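We emphasize that the prediction below concerns an isolated chain of 196 residues; any contacts that depend on oligomerization or on bound cofactors are therefore not represented. The input was used exactly as deposited, without trimming of termini.
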Amino acid sequence: MIRRLGLLVLLVVAMCGMGMGQEPVLDSTPPSRAQVLALMSSMGIQRNIDSALRNTQNKLKVAARNSFQKKNPDADAATLKKLDEIFDGTPLFSFEDISESVIPAYQKNLSAADMQAAIDFYSSEAGKRLLGKLAVIIREANESSGQLVQQKLASYSEQLTRKLEVFEAEMDKQKPAAAKPKAAGEDSKTTDEKSK
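Result of the prediction step, given as a C-alpha cell string:
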C-alpha cells in the first residue's frame, strides 16, 4: 500500500514537472465569419463605414447635380427630379459589399478565443463607454500632445543649432590659416591698403 502510494506520488510529481516545463498550448482556431462580423458590429465598424459611404454618396450626388446644373442652367424641376432618381437608383456600395475582403485579415491574425474576448469587451458597458469616448480622447490627446511636440521640437532645434555653431567654430579653428574664409571687411582692408 505504501509502495503504491509512493508510486502514485512520484507519478503525480513527474506529471506536474512535465506540465510546468511546457508552454501552454494557445488555441489557434481561427474565428468564424460570424465572430468577425459580431466584433465589427459591437465596435460600430459596420455602422461607421456605412455612414461614411452614405456621406460620400451624398457629396458625389451634390457635386454631380451642381455640374449638371452648370451645363444645363435652364433645367426645370422635373428634369432635376429625374436626375435625383438616377442618383438614388444607383446606390454606392455598402459595408456588406466589402466585408468579405476584410474578414480574412481578422481570421489570419486572431484566434477564435481572442475574437470572443474582444466581442465580450466591446459588448460590455465598459467597452461601449470606451467606444463612445474614443473620438474625444483621440482629439484631446492629439491637441495636448501636438502642443508638447511643438515645444519639444523647438527646444531640440535650439539645442541642435547651438551645438552645430560650436562644432563649426571648432572646425574653423582646425582649418589652416589659408583655408579659413576671410571675415567681412578683410578684403576691403587689403584693397584699401593696396591702394595707399
